[in-house]
Specification:
The complex is a heterodimer. Chain A is of the alpha/beta class. Chain A has helices at residues 17-29, 40-50, 66-76, 78-82, 96-105, 118-130, and strands at residues 9-13, 33-37, 54-57, 85-89, 109-112. Classes of the chains: A alpha/beta, B alpha+beta.
């Protein structure tokens, strides 16, 4: 994978091929460099190797789910503690488990895929990338 | 009541009742006679009027036949009809003018063809006009008629006389003579003999049997041909008169609504009715005066009788009073030395003598008695003193014994009752399905019921005498137990919560747990009672349900997301430029995908609401903003239908603390329904205001301070029969299906459930074909799930 050093890097962790492809195309269209991973395990590795500027993270995935990956990422090192993560899932944040995870792991946004157009997701990614950096605890 | 008054009243009654009865009977018979006379007068008057009018009408009909039966005029008109030359017309005209000159009461004459065209007239302006719609023409075609009255522009009444012109049995036309109505008016105006309020009115039958006034009335000079009396009114004579009924009305109402007596007559030749009438107030005036006179007589006589009765009763009771006074003196003062003076020789006199005799004997008896009493008294005094002392001592001992005995019996009964209660209570406790344990203040188990076998897996005997903490192996966090002990031991309050404990076999179970300290009267803890209900199964089922719902929704949404995003990319032109058709088709796929997502979301909401696994995240919400955003979503449809939208929001509305997603779903449903079911160019209105607890809105009382949202539309309304089903799942009203076959019938069901979930309420008022208003109470502080 060749990464243009001038572009911001976004890691998409997503097991559904079709969705991954659509996100990849849309983010690239917005002039971002896109990294891919198909489960939490792979995502964790790409994240540590490439230190992307933002991670788009699905929850339900084989091998390691999104929350597990995020938990490990947050515990791993200072970079992992602070990297902005946008949860992109088709689960709804209306049960206790989801809400508890959101509270503990602090993703920037929790987006339900089916409720958003691709355009809206790209806007949120750009908005998060361009937000002024807040000091990370 | 004393005797004097009683006697006076009896005399009064005897004297007055015949007087009053005689008065009333005389009054009633006088009233009957006067009424009968009034009715006779009215009937006679009506007959007179009927005769006069019949004569007058016959006169007019005679005048008319001067024309209609005139052979010369008939011949001239026949010629004109056969050959309508100018000459023939001139001849008819001249003949008419000549005839008219001889009859003064006729103002004009004209001839009409069978089709209604005026062929000739002494009034040139009428020639050529068509009168076939006129009533006189229609009637005149068949027979001589004088029944039509008409008003001219100046309001002057005329009588139209019309009759057929026949040649050998064939009607060739109608001759119309217009006469003044002086005669009829003057007859109708004759009120003499009917007092100040009486009159006769002349009426004619019009549509539906209503009666139309033909002439001005005494109280309404403009009534002629304008005023009608409806046949549906009760007790009004005019419609009866025009129906041909000749009656006497003893209790009727006239066109002014005044009570009257009346008689009706009918003139069949013209179909007119006559009502001769007089106001009841005037007709009954003599009766009233008579009544007043009788009342006066009874009053004067009454006063006179009162005086007589009082003086009579005095003369009877005076000696009795004297006697009474004397007896009272004897009784109260004990004075037996006097006697009463008896003067009269009647029954009272005899009574007085008997009294004197009695007092004499009393005096003797009293003297003897006094002596005897003095003797006996001194004897008794000695004996009594001895007896009293011994008796008192015995009494004291007996009473002490009795008290003691009663107390013992009472205590025994109490103890028995208590034991009985305790046995019952223990039996209930032993067999309760919840686990009940009692421990001493140190946590040592002193009692456990049978349920401990089922829940904890121990027998009661295994448990008693052991420490509770050691038995259940404490799988909960340290803080939990600290909190538990702090509540029950330090605060001395009951602790309620979910707890996890370990069964004898090591298995962890979840229970609803209550522990309460039991205190003695000094506030010291004697023991603790704890209750456990095993809810492990319920917990597992809940968790499974909740997980299934999340997963199912995820599985359905994943392919849907792909469909939506790819159709989006295609329409955006990411895969190359599309034709217009392609653009349109992919757009449709995208829209359908979004709808599908909304449906999945709805089902998810419903499942969460029904399984009670919905977690609410209350945040401060600006309701006005949510409404504006929701309205925006329907903007396209509103524009298409040209709906007029009214928004009225109370200024400085407080923020709600509530789950915004639920509020959004409720508002979306109400607004999209209003848009959907309102016809083009209709109106919808949204109101927002605060209501205080106890305030009533559209029949519903607010149970707490809340914000009221109302969404009103001018739509199709909800049929009466469907109103109680409107919030039922999957219910769709027949009329709603016609309007929108695609609805799924869950919107209002869901809104209602959600409103309930946040402690609010949703209800409506509706009128079929006019519109519906939905109301929602949103409590300022939403309920926690």
């Amino acid at each position: 994978m060749i990464i243009d050093p001038g572009k911001k890097k976004v890691l998409v962790v997503e097991d559904d091929e079709a969705i991954l492809k659509a996100l990849h195309a849309a983010l690239e269209h917005a002039d971002l460099a896109v990294l891919e991973a198909k489960n939490g395990m792979a995502g964790l590795k790409v994240a540590s190797d490439e230190h992307p500027d933002l991670i788009l993270l699905d929850i339900l995935m084989p091998l390691m789910d999104g929350w597990e990956m995020l938990e490990e990422l947050r515990e791993k090192d200072d970079w992992g503690k602070c990297v902005p993560v946008v949860i992109l899932t088709n689960l709804t944040a209306d049960d206790d488990a989801q809400i508890r995870h959101i509270a503990e792991l602090g993703p920037s946004f929790f987006m339900v895929k089916a409720d958003w157009k691709l355009e809206g997701i790209v806007d949120k990614v750009l908005e998060t990338l361009n937000a002024p950096k807040v000091p990370c605890p | 009541m004393n005797l004097e008054k009683k006697i006076a009243i009896i005399i009064l009654q005897i004297a007055l009742i015949p007087w009053a009865l005689a008065g009333i009977i005389a009054y009633l018979s006088a009233q009957e006679q006067i009424n009968a006379k009034t009715y006779t007068n009215l009937a006679a008057f009506a007959d007179l009027q009927k005769n006069w009018l019949q004569d007058a009408i016959q006169n007019k009909l005679d005048t008319l036949s001067l024309f209609s039966n005139d052979p010369e005029l008939v011949a001239l008109f026949h010629d004109y009809r056969a050959q309508p030359t100018l000459l023939a017309e001139k001849k008819v005209q001249e003949y008419l003018a000549g005839e008219l000159g001889t009859i003064t009461s006729i103002q004009k004459v004209f001839l009409v063809t069978p089709t209604g065209t005026v062929a000739a007239s002494t009034d040139k302006t009428l020639i050529g006009k068509n009168v076939n719609a006129e009533e006189y023409f229609k009637l005149g075609l068949h027979a001589n008629d004088a029944s039509t009255l008409k008003k001219d522009a100046a309001g002057v009444l005329s009588q139209y006389l019309a009759g057929p012109i026949r040649v050998r049995g064939v009607t060739e036309g109608v001759v119309v003579a217009v006469s003044d109505a002086h005669e009829i008016l003057s007859i109708a105006k004759q009120y003499e003999g009917l007092g100040n309020t009486g009159e006769t009115v002349l009426v004619k039958r019009v549509d539906g049997g209503d009666a139309l006034f033909l002439t001005p009335t005494r109280f309404d000079p403009s009534a002629a041909l304008t005023r009608t009396v409806s046949a549906s009114q009760v007790n009004v004579p005019a419609p009866h008169a025009v129906a041909g009924e000749e009656l006497i009305f003893t209790n009727a109402v006239d066109y002014r609504g005044v009570k009257i007596f009346a008689a009706t007559r009918y003139i069949s030749s013209v179909g007119w009715g006559i009502v001769a009438k007089i106001d009841q107030s005037e007709a009954l005036a003599p009766v009233r005066r008579l009544g007043e006179l009788f009342a006066l007589i009874i009053l004067v006589a009454g006063i006179f009788v009162v005086f007589i009765s009082i003086s009579m009763s005095r003369s009877i009771t005076r000696p009795i009073n004297q006697l009474t006074l004397f007896v009272r003196k004897v009784a109260e003062g004990g004075n037996l030395q006097q006697s009463v003076v008896v003067t009269s020789k009647d029954e009272v006199g005899t009574l007085g003598a008997a009294f004197n005799n009695m007092i004499l004997r009393l005096r003797e008896a009293y003297t003897t008695l006094e002596k005897k009493v003095a003797e006996r008294t001194s004897e008794l005094a000695e004996k009594t003193a001895d007896a009293r002392n011994s008796e008192a001592a015995a009494m004291n001992i007996a009473s002490d014994l009795k008290d003691e005995e009663e107390k013992l019996a009472e205590e025994k009964m109490k103890a028995e009752e208590l034991a009985n209660d305790l046995i019952k209570f223990k039996l209930a406790l032993d067999n309760a399905s919840d686990q009940v344990t009692i421990t001493d203040p140190e946590g040592m188990v002193i009692y456990a019921n049978a349920a401990v076998v089922k829940i904890a897996g121990y027998s009661p005997e295994e448990v008693v005498g052991k420490r509770a903490g050691a038995l259940w192996k404490l799988p909960m966090s340290r803080e939990y137990y600290a909190q538990l002990w702090h509540t029950i031991r330090d605060e001395k309050k009951p602790f309620i919560g979910e707890i996890q404990n370990r069964r004898k076999n090591g298995e962890v179970y979840t229970a609803m747990f209550t522990a309460s300290p039991v205190l003695d009267e000094n506030g010291t803890i004697i023991f603790y009672v704890s209750l456990e209900r095993d809810i492990t199964k319920e917990k597992e089922v809940d968790t499974a349900k909740s997980e299934f719902i999340s997963l199912a929704s995820h599985q359905m949404r994943a392919p849907l997301t792909a469909i939506n995003w790819y159709s989006e990319m295609l329409t955006e032109g990411d895969a190359g430029k599309l034709t217009k058709k392609q653009q349109e088709y992919f757009g449709a796929i995208h829209t359908a995908g979004q709808q599908m997502n909304e449906i999945i979301k709805s089902f998810l909401h419903i499942l969460r609401l029904e399984t009670g696994t919905l977690t609410m995240s209350p945040i401060p919400v600006n309701l006005e903003e949510v409404i504006r955003a929701t309205l925006k979503e329907s903007q396209l449809e509103i524009g298409k239908k040209k709906l007029h939208v009214v928004e009225q929001y109370q200024a400085s509305l407080p923020m709600l603390t509530v789950d915004v997603e639920l509020i959004r779903v409720i508002l979306q449903n109400l607004i999209s329904n209003a848009v959907k079911y309102t016809p083009k160019e209709g109106e919808m209105a949204i109101f927002l205001k605060t209501v205080a607890r106890g305030e009533i809105v559209a029949g519903k009382t607010a149970e707490q301070d809340a914000v009221l949202v109302s969404v009103r539309d001018t739509g199709i309304g909800i049929p009466q029969a469907d109103r109680d089903k409107i919030f039922t799942k999957f219910f769709r009203s027949g009329i709603a299906k016609q309007w929108d076959p695609n609805g799924n019938g869950i919107g209002l069901y869901m809104s209602n459930k959600m409103a309930e979930a946040i402690g609010g309420a949703i209800w409506f008022e509706s009128e079929e074909g006019k519109g519906t208003t939905f109301y929602v109470f949103l409590p300022l502080q939403a309920a926690k799930s």
